């Protein structure tokens, strides 16, 4: 422990929250019970969250759905080896020298008219643009980000995630010894990791993947959440040298899945950035009547993605094809695909509890 002076700003913030709880929760809840039978309660956070949900529901009720169509065609990249041709989907972006937005093709008739134009037109490559992207690993988990990732990757509810995480924190009997906690405290808004744990993480990354996968400098994560108290570390394994494979048969399936997610994210936070080459290709009619656009990526160096995949990578072109994309011939395939990607445009919802948690 490292004793320090009491931060009175934090103390006063606590007193303010407690006062609001008394004023709103204790004061308004009995009134609601009398005036609105069946109403559960009111609260400092609960009432604000309910207002957000009601406002969004009002937007959804007032929203009018819009039908729209998208035109997509495949173009073939012909390399030096005819047997190595690759088809890449392109979406129409300009028509009659006008840029198209999401709702520019409102009917099937217009989409079919564009299809006929494409069949009777000759296309060529108008431009190829390359760019290099370095993407740093995601931050270590805090309570809210763990809930979000578990919902997205494992389809766990926030409550179920916290229940499993609590069990991992309380620990299990790995042998005849006393109970061993597998992860650090789960209710935290701090991204920092202790120096000793960071050293262990970097050492294990070097052993498993090599020195080039270890970040050049120690990654130190400062406060990112507004008004964060940072009383606890980020959520991480108590020992990074306890890999998920060592717990197979000891943890149940869901617990092992969540532990694996935490272990991988913790490993990734001290690894090198991934390096990706983005390739943007424009194909169209030279006169400018019609233009198609496509973007692909070529992963040059995995970096942290060797252990943790963030599911945000674009479709990739093979390295051999990516290197000669300037010299490729693009020719339209005989089959044009006119697709309705989303037949109607609807307003977005909160996407569940985790999204609402972030907004609050």
Automatic annotation (TrEMBL):
Catalysed reactions, as listed in the record: ATP-independent breakage of single-stranded DNA, followed by passage and rejoining
EC number: 5.6.2.1
Gene Ontology BP terms: DNA topological change
Pfam families per the UniProt record, alphabetical: Topoisom_bac
Keyword Isomerase: yes
Keyword annotations of the record: DNA-binding, Isomerase, Topoisomerase
InterPro entries for this protein: Topo_IA, Topo_IA_2, Topo_IA_AS, Topo_IA_cen, Topo_IA_cen_sub1, Topo_IA_cen_sub3, Topo_IA_core_domain, Topo_IA_DNA-bd_dom
Gene Ontology MF terms: DNA binding; DNA topoisomerase type I (single strand cut, ATP-independent) activity
SUPFAM superfamilies associated with the record: Prokaryotic type I DNA topoisomerase (SSF56712)
Occurrences of domain Topo IA-type catalytic (ranges): 7-360
Similarity remark: Belongs to the type IA topoisomerase family.
Protein name in UniProt: DNA topoisomerase
């Amino acid at each position: 422990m490292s004793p320090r002076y009491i931060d009175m700003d934090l103390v006063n913030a606590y007193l303010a929250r407690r006062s609001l709880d008394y004023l709103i929760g204790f004061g308004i809840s009995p009134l609601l019970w009398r005036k609105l039978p069946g109403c559960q309660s009111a609260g400092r956070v609960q009432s604000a969250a309910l207002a957000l949900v009601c406002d969004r529901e009002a937007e959804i009720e007032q929203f009018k759905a819009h039908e729209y169509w998208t035109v997509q065609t495949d173009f073939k990249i012909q390399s030096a080896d005819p047997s190595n041709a690759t088809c890449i989907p392109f979406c129409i972006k300009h028509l009659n020298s006008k840029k198209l937005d999401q709702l520019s093709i409102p009917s099937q008739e217009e989409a079919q008219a564009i299809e006929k134009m494409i069949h009777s037109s000759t296309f060529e490559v108008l431009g190829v643009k390359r760019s290099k992207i370095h993407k740093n690993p995601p931050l270590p988990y805090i309570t809210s980000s763990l809930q979000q990732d578990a919902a997205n990757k494992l389809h766990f509810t926030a409550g179920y995630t916290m229940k499993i995480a609590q069990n991992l924190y309380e620990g299990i009997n790995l042998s005849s010894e006393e109970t061993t906690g597998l992860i650090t405290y789960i209710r935290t808004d701090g991204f920092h990791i202790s120096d000793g744990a960071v050293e262990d993480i970097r050492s294990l990354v070097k052993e498993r993947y090599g020195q080039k996968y270890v970040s050049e400098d120690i990654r130190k994560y400062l406060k990112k959440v507004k008004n964060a108290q940072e009383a606890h570390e980020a959520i991480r394994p108590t020992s990074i040298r306890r890999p998920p494979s060592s717990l197979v048969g000891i943890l149940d399936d869901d617990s092992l899945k969540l532990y694996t997610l935490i272990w991988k994210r913790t490993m990734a936070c001290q690894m090198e950035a991934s390096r990706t080459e983005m390739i943007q290709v424009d194909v169209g009619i030279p006169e400018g009547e019609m233009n198609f656009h496509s973007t692909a990526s070529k992963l040059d160096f995995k970096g942290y993605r060797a252990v943790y995949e963030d599911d945000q990578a674009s479709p990739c072109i093979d390295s051999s094809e990516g290197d000669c994309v300037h010299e490729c011939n693009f020719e339209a395939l005989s089959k044009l695909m006119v697709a309705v990607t989303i037949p109607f445009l609807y307003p977005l919802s909160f996407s569940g509890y985790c999204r609402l948690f972030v907004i609050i």
